[in-house]
Amino acid sequence: MSGADEGTVAAAEQDVDAMDYESARDALVAVVDELERGGATLEQSLALWERGEALAARCETWLTGARARLDAARAEA
After folding, report:
1. CATH number of the domain at 3-76, please?
2. 3-state secondary structure of 18
3. What is each CA distance from 56 to 3, 17, 40, 52, 64, in whole angstroms?
4. Neighbouring C-alpha atoms within 13 Å toward the C-beta of 37
5. How high does pLDDT run on average in the chain?
């Protein structure tokens, strides 16, 4: 991967890391839709897949945090 490609990947990861749950979920749905339509080159498909993986991980982070907050609130009650 070239230096320019690595910079693009790093920027995309930062973008995902800053997303709230709803934004990440909506972006993940868009990635899945685009992959299902087909027509992308192999390189484009790989980039979409990698972005989808990052978005799914971001959603999981949000959901895990929400679950922990709910558990904490239940424990206090």
Report:
1. 1.10.287
2. coil
3. 26, 11, 21, 6, 12
4. 11
5. 89
> Model confidence over 10-41: pLDDT tens digits?
556 669 999 999 999 999 999 999 999 999 99
3-state secondary structure of 19: coil
Q: Parse the chain into domains and list their residue ranges.
A: 3-76
The DSSP symbol for 57 reads: H
- Among residues 69, 23, 39, 26, the alpha carbon closest in space to that of 77 is found at 69
Tokens read off for 54: 């990052």
Q: How far apart are the first and last CA of the chain?
A: 52
